[in-house]
């Protein structure tokens, strides 16, 4: 088994999921609490990676971060090398690709927090930010964990985006799914089967834990 | 200083409902203002505007010298800065926090020492000691209500806003807590606005009262004034209680009380803890009129009186009587004809002891429990 590819994949998935918690929570808060009439425009953009072919998304990201775009030029000037075909470039692509897998569970959890509780916190003098961390987030733990785990699992299995943006550089951007593809191309079915089984088992375990948690098989706190 | 909270606000909703309300809450001495009205009359919306949770379209809200809202000047103070104590209908306790956690939630800016002092004080005041570690889901309705009150008063709010504080409780608990709330409001001496649609609560808790209907104020005054002298037929219909008199309980045994109303003795059913000073409330529908002095009936109260006024109100006729105190009765048009009712005529009025309701009076020298 290609342990280097597994290492790269785990690192990518962990960092993507962590970054998505940081980026996804404010977006989800806005999606859940905004009363703006055109909110659905933003919601559909967030959900776009669910339906877009990964190659299309990858293509646009590649162009956007490439040395000919303003962002890519700025990055190259600052860091010294362009973003495409690096781990950082891959990370940016993965975050965008898994955005809905984090934002949607977060927003769904926020939607379930009774607005009266939030207003009660405000009338008790607690700021909006304070209310978020003291009340909304603790009540949304299950949703936040779900979003984290789903974006982690989704990143584990990504293929098209990785190929477009990351290429296939051993130890840098070659992930497990690319490795499996390579093995099959090289007619090494035994190697491909082993890695595939591992990915299948990990993905199944992750989804198992998410569903169990949302059914409150083991509750974080006593149920109401 | 005659500090008061003033609100003159209006707001139009997409549903077509418009709110147009003007109210004053005297804060010195602290006053309890009752917002009375049927469901959908806009009472809760008024509280939400006062709390800063909703923004009126027009008008001003001022608390003492401090402007809370001014549409013209573009002032809208957020709820966090208004220092209010709010109690919502379903209490809105934080399910992930214990009783203590709920009370301490809004005390973040205080020192740790002051925080625990305030919590202990609130727990003692509402008799919640021993429940500190419980989660809201493990409490009875009455206990939840007390926790919500403790949480609201722990911050020493300038004004308390209570939205139907007792409506989520079963009837026996409600009556018990109504008494407790009456003592508590008196003891706390915080100006308060209490939303209710229960005439007993209004009389027991309120110093002042406004009656609302369809987003508008129909009448303002003391509760007794409003019950006895509704300015319009709408107010009379909404409050649903035509006679509210000051009385003193002379005797109380076996659930039956003898009450002195202006020298006339009435019999009423009463709880043991009703106290001495009460409002005596009689619905006009419960008063039976007879001509002259006839034989005995099962009704415990039988009064002779003089007809002072006869006014038609739809299919019914309102008859105001003087029985040593003013009493309202309603009868059908046919009954008016049969009895030949006319102003100045002597009649006898009777009602069962169960139709005479006693409500403890807040302003009287009721014993204050510590």
How far apart, in Å, are the first and last alpha carbons of chain A?
A: 47 Å
Biggest β-sheet strands, sense, barrel of chain A: none
Q: Which runs of chain B of at least 5 residues are low in confidence (pLDDT < 50)?
A: 365-370
Order of helices and strands of chain B: EEEHEEEEHHHEHEHEEHHEEEEEEEEHEE
Number of helices of chain A: 11
Order of strands, main sheet of chain B, comes to 7-8-9-3-10-11
- How many E strands of chain B? 21
Count up the helices of chain B: 9
Describe this structure in words.
The complex is a heterodimer of chains A (224) and B (370). With 224 residues, chain A is mainly alpha-helical. In chain A, 75% of the residues lie in helices and 0% in strands. In chain A, helix 5 runs antiparallel to helix 8, helix 6 runs antiparallel to helix 7 and helix 10 runs antiparallel to helix 11. Chain A is globular and about 65 Å long. The relative contact order of chain A is 0.16. With 370 residues, chain B is an alpha+beta fold. Chain B has helices at residues 43-51, 99-104, 112-125, 141-153, 171-188, 199-205, 223-228, 233-239, 333-339; strands at residues 4-12, 18-26, 32-36, 58-63, 66-70, 75-76, 84-87, 159-163, 192-196, 208-213, 216-221, 243-253, 256-261, 264-269, 277-282, 288-291, 301-313, 316-322, 326-332, 346-351, 356-360. In chain B, the strands form four sheets. In chain B, strands 7-8-9-3-10-11 form a six-stranded mixed sheet, sandwiched between helices. In chain B, strands 2-1-4-5-6 form a five-stranded antiparallel sheet, covered by helices on one side. In chain B, a hairpin with a 2-residue loop joins strand 17 and strand 18. In chain B, helix 3 packs across helix 4 (141-153). Chain B is globular. The two termini of chain B are 29 Å apart. Chains A and B meet through helix 6 and helix 7 of A and strand 7 of B.
């Amino acid at each position: 088994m290609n342990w280097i590819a597994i290492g790269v994949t785990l690192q990518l998935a962990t960092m993507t999921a962590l970054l998505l918690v940081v980026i996804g929570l404010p977006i989800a808060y806005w999606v859940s609490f905004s009363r703006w009439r055109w909110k659905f425009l933003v919601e559909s953009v967030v959900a776009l990676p669910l339906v877009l072919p990964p190659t299309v998304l990858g293509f646009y990201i590649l162009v956007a971060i490439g040395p000919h775009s303003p962002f890519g030029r700025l990055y190259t000037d600052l860091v010294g090398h362009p973003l495409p075909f690096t781990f950082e470039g891959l990370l940016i692509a993965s975050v965008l690709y898994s955005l809905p897998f984090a934002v949607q569970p977060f927003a769904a959890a926020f939607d379930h927090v009774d607005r009266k509780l939030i207003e009660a916190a405000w009338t008790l003098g607690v700021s909006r930010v304070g209310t978020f961390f003291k009340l909304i987030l603790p009540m949304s733990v299950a949703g936040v964990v779900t979003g984290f785990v789903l974006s982690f699992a989704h990143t584990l299995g990504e293929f098209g985006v990785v190929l477009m943006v990351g290429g296939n550089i051993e130890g840098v951007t070659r992930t497990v799914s690319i490795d499996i593809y390579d093995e099959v191309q090289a007619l090494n079915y035994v190697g491909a089967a082993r890695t595939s089984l591992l990915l299948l088992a990990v993905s199944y375990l992750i989804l198992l834990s998410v569903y169990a948690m949302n059914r409150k098989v083991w509750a974080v706190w006593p149920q109401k | 200083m005659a500090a008061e909270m003033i609100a003159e606000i209006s707001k139009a909703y997409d549903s077509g409902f418009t709110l147009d309300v003007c109210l004053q809450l005297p804060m010195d001495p602290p006053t309890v203002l009752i917002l009375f009205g049927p469901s959908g009359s806009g009472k809760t919306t008024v509280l939400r505007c006062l709390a800063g949770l909703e923004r009126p379209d027009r008008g001003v809200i001022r608390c003492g010298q401090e402007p809370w809202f001014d549409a013209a000047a573009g002032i809208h103070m957020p709820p966090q800065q208004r220092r209010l104590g709010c109690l919502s209908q379903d209490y809105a306790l934080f399910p992930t926090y214990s009783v203590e956690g709920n009370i301490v939630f809004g005390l973040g800016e205080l020192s740790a020492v002051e925080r625990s002092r305030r919590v202990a004080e609130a727990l003692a005041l509402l008799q919640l000691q021993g429940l500190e570690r419980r989660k809201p889901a493990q409490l009875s309705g009455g206990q939840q209500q007390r926790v919500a009150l403790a949480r609201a008063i722990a911050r020493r709010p300038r004004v308390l806003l209570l939205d139907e504080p007792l409506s989520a409780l079963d009837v026996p608990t409600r009556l018990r807590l109504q008494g407790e709330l009456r003592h508590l409001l008196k003891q706390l001496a915080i100006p308060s606005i209490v939303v209710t649609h229960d005439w007993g609560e209004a009389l027991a808790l309120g110093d002042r009262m406004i009656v609302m209907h369809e987003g508008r104020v129909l009448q303002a005054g003391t509760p007794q004034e409003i019950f006895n002298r509704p300015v319009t037929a709408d107010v009379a219909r909404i409050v649903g209680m035509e006679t509210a008199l000051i009385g003193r309980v002379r005797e109380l045994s076996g659930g039956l009380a003898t009450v002195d109303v202006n020298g006339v003795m009435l019999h009423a059913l009463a709880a043991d803890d009703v106290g001495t000073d009460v409002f005596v409330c009689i619905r006009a529908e419960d008063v039976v009129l007879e001509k002259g002095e006839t034989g005995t009936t099962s009704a415990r109260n039988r009064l002779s009186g003089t007809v002072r006024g006869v006014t038609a109100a739809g299919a019914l006729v309102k008859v105001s009587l003087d029985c040593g105190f003013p009493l309202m009765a309603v009868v059908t048009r046919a009954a008016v004809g049969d009895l030949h009712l006319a102003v100045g005529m002597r009649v006898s009025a009777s009602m069962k002891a169960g139709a005479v309701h006693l409500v403890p009076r807040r302003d009287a020298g009721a014993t204050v429990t510590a």
